[in-house]
Design a protein that fits this description.
The chain is mainly α and 496 residues long. It contains 21 helices and 5 strands. It has helices spanning 3-9, 15-42, 47-59, 79-89, 91-110, 122-144, 153-158, 160-168, 173-190, 202-217, 229-232, 247-272, 282-298, 308-316, 323-338, 348-362, 365-374, 376-391, 394-413, 441-449, 469-486, and strands at 71-73, 305-307, 416-421, 428-436, 457-467. The protein has a 3-stranded mixed sheet with strand order 3-4-5, with helices on one face. Strands 1-2 form a two-stranded antiparallel ribbon.
Length: 496
């Protein structure tokens, strides 16, 4: 084979695709920049660590196979969990937790478990995001008022009205609240402006305008604290791994791994609907996410997930290949290396406003309404998951949601019908059809116990698709009791 034939056999880069990817990478960089910084500040870690996670999400995870167009980085959906972990274990232990979660993700990918995340109840995922959104909104409203937020999600919400009322009466907080409210207003109104104006991403415009207003008006509001990229990076030491001996740390690692994986793979499914290019390879995407989180952990940075806001911006900006997301990581690296001091002029209240807006997007208000009309049980699972996360915590709330989803499914699938045939003479016939499980035992036993006690009964189970152990035992016990009354045994045959 000639050299020309070999070259022809390989797919050469399309110059037009490279140009589109370059342009898309700039757009995604501008969208990601304020979100990376905002998520880091809200998580209680240096702002630079958010940029580190964005860089790793672009360069490391972005270069790997899986989903070609979705973009990874620090996500608002993990902010609450990261903040709680930092408060409990400290910033130094964050790297160990994220590293362990990344290794767990890679193990799940090696075991080809990525596809099974598509089996997670959508109501649980949306409930999880809604609960995160509620806690995130409440927590960032305290940040907008420059007031320390309570530790628990429930206290954040319950104490919010009094805190905001007190903040309005102080001397410094109104300025910060005005900056945050103005940031939210810009984000809400940005999509109503002409398309030419919208070429500048809304989050960047909102933070830029807020920063300019604070500078020009001389407002007394808190700014982002800057450490420098190398100073912020904090690789875990050997002693930090001792944290993994505690049950709380293990639960946090599981929560990081499972929630980040679920959010990333659900994001991949959503991004696949936005374009007609190659579909996501779920196990490979999970491997990429795990590799990214492993590197983030080694650097002591925030955990990463795929993020729908950046991914959608990438697709809408015309990206064709994964080069766009890799380049966006390069731009973040150059910014963090060359212009770190620029972060120090950004008001914290503006970043809080960006995250309040992001938190509102996590609450599926329209979906709850449609679910209530069409699938009421799913709506109950969604709302219960969200409330459990607010009241108890992230990991426990997700477990509550999963348990409710399983219970709902078990109840809905265990339909059983008991048909009684009484011809007036001879034995009474009872025909059971469907799925006989312990959940339907009250209905089955009520019907059987209402049959005449002085006549023989024939029990027919040929119509059952499933008969669990509890139900069979209960039927056998009923048969013994009935036989003692009529002195004629009742057979309990096996279902076909």
């Amino acid at each position: 084979m000639s050299a020309h034939d070999k070259t022809a056999g390989r797919r050469l880069p399309d110059p037009s695709s490279l140009a589109r990817d370059f342009g898309a990478s700039v757009v995604v960089f501008l969208v990601a920049l304020p979100l990376c910084v905002g998520v880091a500040v809200a998580s209680g870690v240096p702002a630079e660590l958010g940029l580190v996670t964005g860089i790793v999400g672009g360069i490391v995870a972005g270069a790997m196979r899986g989903s070609s167009l979705q973009v990874s980085g620090p996500a608002a959906g993990l902010t609450v969990l990261v903040f709680e972990a930092v408060q409990e274990f400290g910033v130094a232990a964050l790297g160990v937790l994220v590293l362990s979660a990344g290794l767990l993700q890679m193990l799940m990918a090696a075991l080809r478990l990525g596809r099974f995340f598509r089996a997670i109840s959508l109501a649980v995922v949306e409930g999880m995001l809604a609960g995160i959104g509620l806690v995130l909104i409440a927590g960032q409203l305290y940040a907008m008022a420059e007031v320390k937020a309570p530790s628990s999600g429930l206290d954040k919400i319950l104490q919010l009205p009094g805190t905001l009322a007190g903040a309005l009466g102080s001397t410094a907080s109104p300025a910060a609240l005005a900056v945050g409210a103005g940031t939210i207003a810009v984000l809400v109104l940005w999509k109503r402006l002409p398309k030419a104006v919208q070429t500048v991403p809304g989050p960047l415009a909102a933070v830029g305008l807020a920063t300019a207003a604070v500078y020009l008006l001389g407002l007394p509001v808190a700014k982002v604290e800057v450490q420098g990229l190398l100073d912020a990076v904090n690789p875990p030491g050997a002693g930090d791994f001792a944290q993994l001996a505690g049950i709380g740390a293990v639960g946090t690692v599981l929560a990081f791994a499972l929630i980040a994986s679920a959010e990333s793979l659900f994001c991949a499914a959503a991004v696949d609907r936005l374009h007609d290019g190659p579909r996501t390879e779920y196990d490979k995407e999970l491997m990429a996410q795990g590799a990214g989180n492993t590197v983030c952990g080694l650097l002591g940075a925030l955990p990463m997930t795929a993020v729908i806001v950046r991914s959608a911006a990438n697709v809408q900006a015309g990206a064709r290949t994964k080069a766009s997301r890799v380049l966006h990581g390069v731009w973040l690296l150059l910014f963090a290396a060359l212009l770190p001091a620029a972060l120090g002029v950004i008001p914290v209240a503006a970043l809080a406003g960006v995250l309040v807006h992001a938190g509102c997007k996590l609450i599926p208000v329209r979906e709850i309404g449609s679910l209530w009309r069409e699938h009421r049980g799913e709506a109950v699972v969604l709302v219960a998951t969200a409330l459990a996360i607010v009241a108890v915590g992230m990991f426990e709330g997700v477990l509550v949601g999963l348990a409710l989803a399983v219970a709902k499914t078990a109840w809905e699938t265990s339909h059983v019908r008991v048909e009684v045939v009484d011809k007036g003479a001879g034995p009474v016939q009872a025909h059971l059809t469907g799925n006989a499980t312990f959940l339907r035992l009250p209905k089955i036993l009520d019907t059987l116990e209402s049959l005449p006690h002085d006549r023989p009964v024939e029990l027919h189970l040929g119509g059952l698709r499933h008969l669990d152990h509890a139900c069979r035992t209960a039927l056998e016990n009923w048969a013994e009791r009935h036989a003692s009354e009529v002195t004629e045994p009742v057979g309990v045959p096996s279902p076909v």
